[in-house]
Amino acid sequence: xxxxxxxxxxxxxxxxxxxxxxxxxFAATLPEAxxxxxxxxxxxxxxxxxxxxxxxMFAPCGMRKVEAALxxxxxxxxxxxxxxxxxxxxxxxxxxxxxxxxxxxxxxxIAVRExxxxxxxxxxxxxxxxxxxxxxxxxxxxxPRLVVGGNGAWELLGEDLPIDHIYLGEGESDFPDICxxxxxxxxxxxxxxxxxxxxxxxxxxxxxxxxxxxxxxxxCWRGCAFCSPTMRTLRHRPLDRILEDAxxxxxxxxxxxxxxxxxVFTYGSSGMKPNRDxxxxxxxxxxxxxxxxxxxxxxxxxxxxxxxxxxxxxxxxVGIGSDQKYMSAWIGIExxxxxxxxxxxxxxxxxxxxxxxxxxxxxxxxxxxxxxxxPVASLVLxxxxxxxxxxxxxxxxxxxxxxxxxxxxxxxFSPMVETRxxxxxxxxxxxxxxxxxxxxxxxxxxxxxxxxxxxxxxSERMTAGPAVHAALTAINLVADLALNKYxxxxxRGEPPN
Length: 497
Ligand code: SF4
Prior knowledge:
The protein has 497 residues and is an alpha/beta fold. The protein has helices at residues 37-44, 61-72, 114-119, 125-134, 137-142, 171-183, 239-251, 276-288, 301-306, 308-318, 338-344, 357-371, 388-401, 434-458, 466-491, and strands at residues 6-9, 58-59, 80-82, 98-102, 145-149, 165-169, 191-194, 208-209, 213-215, 217-218, 235-236, 256-260, 293-296, 327-334, 373-381, 407-412. It has two domains: 6-194, no CATH class; 199-491, pyruvate-formate lyase- activating enzyme (Alpha-Beta Horseshoe), CATH 3.80.30.20. Helices cover 37% and strands 14% of the residues.
């Protein structure tokens, strides 16, 4: 068949609604030897529904933005498709000139990378499925140009893989012109750097985004040395465009909305001082559209700490305790060491003081518990200069949060290119101190303890039937038993194997 000239797609780890529980997507960091494919696909990463033409009914928000930009720049619907990975035979053919893949973690270098080092049982699902996509028989047969973009595209730099172009940066700005250059057989560099798009020009999606994601803004002013969103200027979208994206998601049958930015409390401001009117209007306007639940993707603890009444007002507008049981947000704790915070994240605690960081974190957790917010927190292990004493400070902080429900993800430091720590060697097993293992063990124990509660809270949003819930509960119990020996070793400061 002829296929479409431009095909946008990704592998099954990205093209799933995860039964409505996005955290289930973390199972993609496990290898097949630990998480057999049939369990992975049925319980954690079920395929998205496909339309009759083979297109995906839902897609990652970034892919939807690129699709919208292509359409706005003059490409026709008949020329491009957001293709379902299981139906590429309906999309890729002799006319296909470009296959654009969006990925957040194509080689498994970001999310919970220590799992691979701990278990040592082969490639995680995200890497193996990405490699199988780029080696798809239809791509081999028709030789379209393969362009990989998205948050994780930097992982491909320096890798010997059959990819024609690595697209770093924002897609809406330059991807349409890049496609025209490729189609006209003009020279295009292997590494492309897409420019930032002004907030008001971020297009409205033409199809539903997975998890009901609605982009609110981009960039962050805090400047943490290991972080890539901070390299982008802070900007926000006009409210009417945000609402249009929310409507597209709700009209597709999705019932939950996830507002995405690096810190929703910066909405409408240029940094530290929240624009309360705009933030409250954002939440009330979204709420008026009638979603079942509203969540935010990320918040910063410095802002929450200084604006606790604002968080309480948002909880009230959203209807926590009446319309929905809880609200979730990803937050960055990163470290319990004020010294490491000062060294690599001097603006993290603002407007609070760096030396009060552990207290700021604890106060926020207390507030989250009072207001029924569920924090999913990240820690970064092995930042340059980190000593055993710094890790001990993080252990003490995590220990003091034990009783609060949430998840804490200890992430090995991975130097992302084009960040201030981009050229530095990443952290791994060979450099881990006993304190690092103790911290990972403690986080694992914390997560296993709270997973059951999280599962019951998340059920509110999940689309899975009782059989899947029963199986997930069983897996939870098995994980408790199976991981216990590793957990005990790590808590003693030993490597898990
Ligand atoms: S606060 Fe978060 S998003 Fe902002 S620079 Fe730091 S790590 Fe990045």
